[in-house]
Amino acid sequence: MRLLFHKGEIMSAQKVRTFQSVNELIERMWPERPPAGHSHRAFYDTATTTLRELERLVCQAIGAPVLVVHRHESFQGCVGFGYTPRDEDYTVSKTCLLGIVRQPGLLLTRRDGDLFPRVEITVDRHVWAGDAMMNRSVHVATGNICGNAHASPVTGWEGLNIPLRARNPWNALNKPLCTEVIVGDEAVCAWAKKHHHELFLRDAFRQLGYAIASPAIDERVTTERVRHANALEPLWLKRRMLHNRIEALTSCILNGEHPIWEGEADARIATHKDREELANVERQLREHMSKLAEYGVGDATPNIHLIRHIAEQLGIQLTK
């Protein structure tokens, strides 16, 4: 079969073969285990073991959440001017992907001409976030969850439950795994609590439309609500102080009275600095209020009267 593309290019369509199980994939692609001493023996053992373990984990969790955590070590700096990275320059990057498993659990395919199969966890869509975005923002993507191409270039899953090979010894202190696959409500919530990612999990489940009752998530939300509520009072007092100073300085300038400055120019500079600081304080207030609106507030929330007063003064909606 041949396909004609809009630029006039002629390309052969690649046939994709789908395997019904990991055992079928192994029998078709690697029918025999390499003999002892063969260079492919270790790869065969690792690939077959991890794929069978992945199938065991995922295929028993249809309709349940699956959390995939990929880690790899890399150098993020610049290698210009002949710089050679040292081992201690390498850092570990982590990516978390969360989805709801659907039938068949694993999609096992191989295109004609490809050396290795493609192994994906079947989900309608998934949520992902990297280190810098954890507990801040999540992104939704359509399609299945794939393996870790950085650490496992063959099927993407050879790093499942395998310790990360770190160049930087500090990165290996807690024995992080290249790839983790966690399935089920309880296991996923326990992982999030252990790594302090309850807020990521909460936002991710909301994006996926998956209802879950988790004491760990509720506890973290309560802690964050109290933290943001307690941060408001000193900021609000500082805002009032800056308002009073700006009004006093403005009055002095208008009346030509500026006894503690050399002239009107100095007074205007002082006013400008206070206005910049005031803008920064109000930005912080809005950030805290936005988080409170997200977490929800009630009569039992600390500083609830101040929260409502600030919402009224700054025109902020407390419900989302």
Note down, in words, how this protein is organized:
It is a single chain. By secondary structure, the chain is α+β, with helices and mostly antiparallel strands. It folds into 2 domains: 12-211, no CATH class; 224-314. It has helices spanning 22-29, 41-59, 185-194, 198-208, 215-230, 232-255, 264-295, 304-314, and strands at residues 2-4, 10-12, 16-19, 65-74, 91-111, 118-130, 139-142, 179-183. Strands 3, 4, 5, 6, 7 and 8 form a 6-stranded antiparallel sheet that branches. A two-stranded antiparallel sheet has the order 1-2. The longest helix is centred in the last third of the chain and has 32 residues, at 264-295. The radius of gyration is 28 Å and the shape is elongated. Mean pLDDT is 83; it is low at 1-12.
Name some characteristics of this structure.
two-stranded antiparallel sheet; disordered N terminus; six-stranded antiparallel β-sheet; 8 helices; 320 residues; alpha+beta
Question: What are the SSEs and their pairings?
Answer:
Elements: E1 2-4, E2 10-12, E3 16-19, H1 22-29, H2 41-59, E4 65-74, E5 91-111, E6 118-130, E7 139-142, E8 179-183, H3 185-194, H4 198-208, H5 215-230, H6 232-255, H7 264-295, H8 304-314
Antiparallel strand pairs: 1-2, 3-5, 4-5, 4-8, 5-6, 6-7
Helix pairs in contact: 4-5, 5-7, 6-7
